[in-house]
Amino acid sequence: MKAEIIAVGTELLLGQVVNTNATFLSEELAVLGIEVYYHTVVGDNPVRLDELLTQAQDRSDLIVLCGGLGPTDDDLTKDTVAAHIHHSLIQDEQALEQLNDYFSFSKNKMTENNLRQTLMIEGGRAIQNPAGLAVGTLVTENDTTYLLLPGPPNELKPMFKKNARPLLEELFPQKEELLSRVLRFYGIGESQLVTELKELIDHQSNPTIAPYAKPNEVTLRLTAKVADHGEGELLLDQLEAKILSQVGDYFYGYGDENSLVEVTVEQLKKAGKTVSAAESLTAGLFQSTLGDVPGVSEVFKGGFVTYSEQTKEAFLGIDPILLEKEGVVSEFCAIAMAEQARILSGADFAVSFTGVAGPDELEGHPAGTVWIGLAEKGKPTIAELQHFTRDRRYIRRSAVMKGLDMVRRAVDK
Amino acid sequence: MKAEIIAVGTELLLGQVVNTNATFLSEELAVLGIEVYYHTVVGDNPVRLDELLTQAQDRSDLIVLCGGLGPTDDDLTKDTVAAHIHHSLIQDEQALEQLNDYFSFSKNKMTENNLRQTLMIEGGRAIQNPAGLAVGTLVTENDTTYLLLPGPPNELKPMFKKNARPLLEELFPQKEELLSRVLRFYGIGESQLVTELKELIDHQSNPTIAPYAKPNEVTLRLTAKVADHGEGELLLDQLEAKILSQVGDYFYGYGDENSLVEVTVEQLKKAGKTVSAAESLTAGLFQSTLGDVPGVSEVFKGGFVTYSEQTKEAFLGIDPILLEKEGVVSEFCAIAMAEQARILSGADFAVSFTGVAGPDELEGHPAGTVWIGLAEKGKPTIAELQHFTRDRRYIRRSAVMKGLDMVRRAVDK
């Protein structure tokens, strides 16, 4: 099974956009046991794309194309592939229905060119787009399979996972099963994790261990290649137990599509507890991150953004004289904010964030100095001093992750 | 001047690394007036790389290769290119000296394979590496020029800028300058924008017009190719004026690195006004987005996250009986939230968000139904009903963008 990925778009050749789709698709295809031999980027030019298809069909069983399914005249991928394999373009009824629904609901004006997005290649299978209007196609001609996906990553990714991957699994079944399990860690860096697990990583064979660093967390993907499902699960269980015996304190959950906020909300739900917040440097990012989780209203009712000294006094009733004396980058301020937010909201827990997002220093403290408070009903309120690095965005995001971890550990107790 | 970029490395084909080098090099080459027609990624495989070189030499004047200059056995780019053009590899004395200095300073043990990094292709010019040990080469054979650079971006970038770019400028002197300008639009979709500008886009030549859709906004990049800088600016001014005469109502700012929130904060600063918010479905995302902008404390002091009916009453003092009667997905609720947030915070403006983030409907309204309120000192408070689509995250982000646009327009008046 040889595959290649062709991204179509002049914006890629001009260096305006990074080809993250090729990276995503390569990772996904590797899991399906499909080997990728080439990535190519070509501009919105049907002649060069057609030449490339001629080469590709000779060397690959599967050609994944991304980009060029949109409404404008330079979106030529569908037309070019259809002409190349001598198929025509036909209307996909489900995509048309989705398009009509979108325009009738959003009240936006539908222009004629939008209809181009609902066309698919005749003889293929339509790939519906859960996050946009352009429909894709999976079509096989002369032993080569063509998969057409849209260019925007926020459309391509859910579309591939939900609608294209199952069709590929059906079309190219694997002889050996690939079982994988993702372990998620917070509070330990990739290099430290790899050093702690050096012995296991150096002697890995089956299952394999692949560490991956994400902003503020690290994941380990354990992958076993087995003939039998039960045997695979057993191998993964054994390896996981070894890993957790060494770095279990940083482990918080499983799965590629999971996150620290989802685990935290889940634990609050299980415990029947609620959380509130008072945010200074994070300016609502903690609460907004909670808001990303569907059904969070069960555990989150609201909170405060107190960016200035005035609002810390006006919204939370913090004594301005003490605040002036202790400073806003202080344990006092973090504890007062968390306690007041908890009392005013009536929640079981409240987190507070106060410190320096940067780029400038504040009260003599460098950017990245952050106090995080945690108030819990019936317990003494605590605050932790953190020193985060990098830029303003990263410092604020790092603070939110630490706040979530503090809540998760408190609920867990 | 046709160019292409070949990245060599199996890690790229496995999806472990994103090909940011191609993006960087494309942008740099565009500025030099060198047009890039293809990006290709191939694994650490000399046979496939050699085949690719055969294709590339027929279609390109310049082939930039990145990756495969390192010390290990799978670093084969130098050997493969040298063999392809029938040149040999020779020792570069400067690189050897740098290597010896490095190992004597760092006290690390130098292994034999490190010497491979100091070899260059005979007949070419060495490209010294200011951030690593692998030397590059620029070599021309049969009218095709080959530029070999290392894979790690932190080596490739300074090496290109400092040592490769001057050689390319010398080899391919530019007759014409490339001037570009980015216009940013909010409130109009890509398909509608290109329909409105169809006449201009169909007849574009110099400057060119390139539309690009981002989540919730569209940008147009205007690019002029000219012998004279002043002439270029004039061409861009004329085209911009034509574009804005048609779709100027949606235009909000310039530049690739700009955003609606930055423009909004800038306008508030200029006007000496402040803004607050009360957020239900957005749960702090509007305020957190403001918080991303350095120096926002001048115009933003704080606000409220009122996710439940209780907190709308407790934090904002909204009448629970009226709220029960009108519902939270209502004009009444949006107006009450915005007004109370403005009064309690003492700000000049306050925005409110209340509605359905989904996935489930609320009070009989489907996901995406959102009321956005805007209170302004001394003016009647207004609220706009919006219907956003897609998933929970997108709906919340769309609402924030609309809220920013409402503030920007109100300040602008």
TrEMBL record, chains A, B:
SUPFAM superfamilies: CinA-like, Molybdenum cofactor biosynthesis proteins. It comes from the Bacteria. CDD domains: cinA. Residues 4-170 form the MoaB/Mog domain. It comes from Candidatus Enterococcus dunnyi. Belongs to the CinA family. This is Putative competence-damage inducible protein. InterPro entries: CinA (IPR050101), CinA-like_C (IPR036653), CinA_C (IPR008136), CinA_KH (IPR041424), Competence-induced_CinA (IPR008135), MoaB/Mog-like_dom_sf (IPR036425), MoaB/Mog_dom (IPR001453).
